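agent> call fold_tool(seq_1)
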Amino acid sequence: MNKHKRVLISGLNGLIGWHLFCEAQKKFSAFGTYRKEHPVFDHARFFRIDLHDEDQIREVFEKVKPHYFIHAWAMCDLDICETYPGMAHRINVEGTEKMLRAAEQSGCVEKFVYISTDHVFDGENGSYDEDARPNPKHVYGRTKRQAEMLVEKTSLPFLIIRPGLVIGQSLQGNKGPRDFLFSRIDARKPTHLFTDEYRTPVRGVDLARRVLDLAVSSETGVFHIAGRKRFDRYQLGCQLAFSHGVRADYIFPRLRRDDAWAHIRPHDLSLKSNRTGAWVSHESVLMPCR
C-alpha cells in the first residue's frame, strides 16, 4: 500500500481519468481535477480547473504536492478536433505544456505520466510497437504527438502511455465506445460500426492498474498498453453486446469509405508491446463492468 504517496490525476470527466482515480484511491492518497461539475466532486480531493489558467493549475500542485502526476485530460473526439483545430491545440498541446511547467516547478513530482493515444499512428500497417514511428493523419493525433514531444523534453522522469481503444463504464454514463453503444441500443437507435477499422481494446480498469503500477516503478519512457487480440469495431460492438446480455439488433456494419470523415479514419491502429507488463488479456475487455 502507498497511502502516504499522493497521486494527482487530471481529466476526471473523461473515461480514462475516472478509471485512474477509482483505482488510485484504493492504494494512494488520490486527488483529481475536472472541468464539468458532477455530484461526486464535492470535497477537498477534487479541483475544478481551467487549462487556460496557469495560476490555477500551479495552486493545485501547491495544495496537493503530488508525488505522481497523471495527465489524462484531452480533447479526443476526432470530428470535433477537425472542426475546431485551434481548440484542440490549446487543450491537448498548450494544456500539457502548462501542466508540465507546474509539475516541474512544484519540486515534489517524482514522475510525470502522460496518457497519449494509438492515434499518433496513421493506421496503414497496424501492430505498432513502442519503436514504431508516429505519423498521425488527423488533428487529434497530431496534437497528441506534439504533446508527447513536449513530455519527452521534461527534466522529470516520465512515462508516455499509449492505450488501445479503452472500454469501460464512464462516470457520466455517456463517454466512450461502450456507453455510446449501449445508450443507443437502449434508445432503439441504429449504430453503424466499421468492419474495416481495427483496434486492440483494453478495459479501463486494467489500463488504470497497469498505469499506476508503472508510475511507482523505476520504468520510464513509452509504453503501449493494449489487449492481445485485434478486433474490428463492428465485431467488438457485437461481442460487447453479447457478453453483456444485450441484443445486437441495432448494430449494423459499415465501411470507412462511407463516412463523412473517411479521409481521417485510420484502418489499423492495433498495438503491440515489447515492454514487460504492458499486455492485458483480451477476454477481460468483454467482461461486464462491476
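agent> call fold_tool(seq_2)
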Amino acid sequence: MKHVRLYQNTNLQIGSNVILDEYGYHHLVKVLRFPEGKDITLFNGDGMNYTATVVRVKKECVVDVHSCEQNLSESELKIHLIQGIAKGEKMDFLIQKAVELGVSKFTPVMSERCVVKLKGDKLYKRQMHWQKVIISAAEQSGRSVIPELCDTINFVEIFNSDITNGLVLHHRAETSLLDMQPVSEVTIIIGPEGGLTSSEIGMAIESKCNPIALGNRILRTETASLAAIANLQLLWGSQQN
C-alpha cells in the first residue's frame, strides 16, 4: 500500500488525537480502504510532516499523532505567479503543475484576451475548486506548505500594490532569464490563450516589470508558465536537499 499524505486544516501536535475532516475520511477509508494500525503523514501548512497512526475508521477516522519532522522540500526562491485565466481543464493542469514546481503564491487574473469570464457565484465556486487543486497537488508532490491562492483580479489591479522583482512574459522581448541577476523573490506575469495585449505589456513595463522571453518559439500559456517556473527554479531556486 502506498504511503498516504493528507492535508488537515487544524492544529497538529505530538500526542494528540485528530479526527480527519470529511475529505480525509472519504479518501482514506472509502477510497483507499485504509486499515487501522498503519501510519500516514499529515500536514497543515506549517512546513512540518506529522506521522500519525490510524486508530479508528468506523463512522469517523481518528489518528494518533506521534512524531513530526521539518519538511525540506520548499525552494528558497519565492515565486508569485500572476496567471491569465485559461479555459477548461488547462487552468487546473497549470495550477497543479505550478504547485508541483514550487510556486508559493498564485493570483488568477482576468485580462483582455481571457476567453473565460467569471463573476459572482461562478467565480466563487471556481476559486474554491482551484483551492482544492492546490491542496491535492501539495499532498501529491510532498510539500508541507500550501501555496497562497489570491482573489481573482482584473489586469489593471495587478499594479495597485508593489510587485517584487516583476517579470512579464513577452515573446518579442530581447532579454532572457540568463541576462537577469538572481533574486530570492520574484513575480512573473503570464497571459492567457492569445497572450497579453501590447497595452497590457506596456502597463507592466511602466510598473517596472522586466519583459523576458523563453526562446524563439511562441508557447501555449500552460507551457509558458511551467517552463518559466522550471527555469526560475533551476537558475535561482535552491538545489535538491
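agent> summarizing second result for user.
Residues 78-236 form a domain with the Alpha/beta knot fold (CATH 3.40.1280.10). The first strand starts at residue 5 and ends at 7.
agent> awaiting next instruction.
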